[in-house]
Specification:
The protein is an alpha/beta fold and 434 residues long. It has 15 helices and 14 strands. β7 and β8 form a beta hairpin. Bound molecules: flavin mononucleotide.
């Protein structure tokens, strides 16, 4: 008997694509058409959603300068994902589209209005990835000398989400009456000010957009630290995570589900998706060779260190590549650092970079059939709820999209492990379908 179905999403920045791949030289991605084609391929493959990453600065963490990031075209440059979410939402009919929007970058009112607009444009398929922007350089772009400490960032974010929810609710579901007899578009008695006076934010409201199709967009979040997990479990419809291996995935999911219960929520109303970067080949030998060739090169190792540097605010260029990494903590992404560091494993920094550079929670290397079997077995062990596909160094290529959507997904569908069609119209309903 087939195991339970699970969900698929794909995580990508609106960034450089396969610019250094000789087979992918035809285009620059900045007009969004590459990502629009990608979204349509994901919809044909019945993904639940495409999730757009974002950050708000060009990192200077690796080697103390922007050089490595710009040379590799890594995490920079990137375009703003919100207009791309609109383009995708307007050009697809079933695929969910989530965009990262930072509490650092927007006042709550502006964010609620933008999210509501995107939910309208996508007819109820928009999701907001709630982030607090854990990079010091981003804080400096928004007039701060330093980021608030993580604890306070999440305290601010709790209040932020509380206010944003009130703004979404400021229009009653039936506020738009369109009554020709009385010449009334919206009934003012059903649109309410929020009069919010918090510790960090004040806002009068109401929102000046009509209530959006989902009432509020689906909320996504990726808390890694205990405080971050509590935040995610309190607010999110979908939690996205990177974990260390199958045991780490299971422990993470069990943990956020416990936090959800403590917050008075039904944990089955939250879907946990784990980052995975399958390395596929026509044969196992071909997949293994690609894994070694593409992800063991000095250029990949440097890219992986620079990438994890930007996520964790730690300059890994200061450490010897062939020595074990000392235990580290950060005010940046602790979850990413813990996954990267594999504390106590005795692995050298070079090994860690090779293994973690793909950002995969588990190593998945093989043919579509063998990887589909592994993914199913992993989900059976973890308990749910799906995978969030990512490309190594977050650099997506047409070839890789084709391998996943035309090779791996059909193998998963043949096994009855992922959806073969959509039955719901909104992103939240699609996520909650199973
Ligand atoms: C799958 C995944 C996606 C994330 N996407 C973003 C993003 O687009 N932008 C961002 O600033 N942070 C992003 N983060 C970072 C999280 O918001 C969070 O800061 C991180 O998981 C560390 O958790 P902590 O703040 O509890 O330490 C992502 C993390 C994960 C695991």
């Amino acid at each position: 008997m087939a195991g339970k179905r699970f969900h698929l999403g794909w995580f990508t920045p609106f960034g450089t694509t396969g610019w250094n791949n000789p087979l992918e030289q035809t285009e620059e991605p900045w007009d969004g058409r590459f990502y629009l084609d990608m979204a349509q391929a994901l919809e044909r493959a019945c993904f639940d959603l495409i999730m757009l990453e974002d950050s708000l600065s060009i990192s200077e963490v690796h080697g103390g300068s922007m050089e490595a990031y710009l040379r590799h075209g890594l995490m920079a440059p990137k375009n703003d994902p919100a207009p791309l979410a609109a383009l995708i939402g307007a050009s697809t009919t079933r695929l969910g589209v989530a965009s990262t929007l930072s509490t650092l970058a927007y006042q709550p009112f502006a964010l609620a209005r933008l999210c509501s607009t995107l939910d309208h444009i996508s007819h109820g398929r928009f999701g907001w990835n709630i982030v607090t922007s854990p990079a010091e350089a981003s804080a400096r772009n928004f007039g701060l000398d330093h980021l608030p400490p993580r604890q306070e960032r999440y305290d601010i974010a709790d209040e932020y989400v509380d206010l944003v929810k009130k703004l979404f609710e400021s229009w009653e579901p039936d506020a738009v009456v369109r009554d020709l007899a009385t010449n009334t578009y919206a009934d003012a008695k059903r649109v309410h000010k929020v009069h919010y006076e918090g510790k960090y934010f004040r806002c009068e409201g109401p929102l000046n957009t009509v209530r959006c199709p989902q009432g509020r967009p689906a909320f996504l979040q990726a808390g890694g630290s205990p405080r971050g997990r509590r935040f995610a479990a309190t607010h999110a419809d979908c939690i996205v995570a990177v974990a260390d291996g199958v045991a780490g995935m299971k422990a993470y999911r069990d943990d956020v589900r416990r936090y959800a219960v403590a917050a008075g929520r039904d944990p089955d109303q939250i879907k946990v998706l784990f980052l995975a970067a399958p390395i596929l080949g026509n044969t196992m030998a071909e997949a293994l060779e690609r894994d070694e060739r593409d992800y063991g090169s000095p250029s990949f190792i440097e890219g992986a260190l620079a990438l994890y540097g930007s996520l964790t605010d730690i300059d890994f260029s200061q450490f010897d590549l062939d020595v074990e990494l000392p235990y580290l903590t950060t005010n940046g992404e602790q979850g990413a650092l813990d996954k990267f560091g594999q504390w106590g494993s005795g692995k050298t920094l070079r090994q860690l970079a090779k293994e973690s550079g793909t950002s995969s929670s588990v190593r998945l290397v093989g043919t579509p059939d063998s990887v589909a079997d592994e993914m199913g077995a992993i989900m059976d062990e973890v308990g749910g709820d799906g995978f969030l596909i990512i490309t190594p160094l977050m650099r997506v290529t047409r070839r890789y999209i084709g391998e996943v959507t035309e090779g791996l997904v059909p193998a998963l569908q043949r096994r009855g492990r992922v959806r073969t069609g959509y039955t719901k119209s909104t992103l939240r309903e699609t996520l909650l379908e199973f």
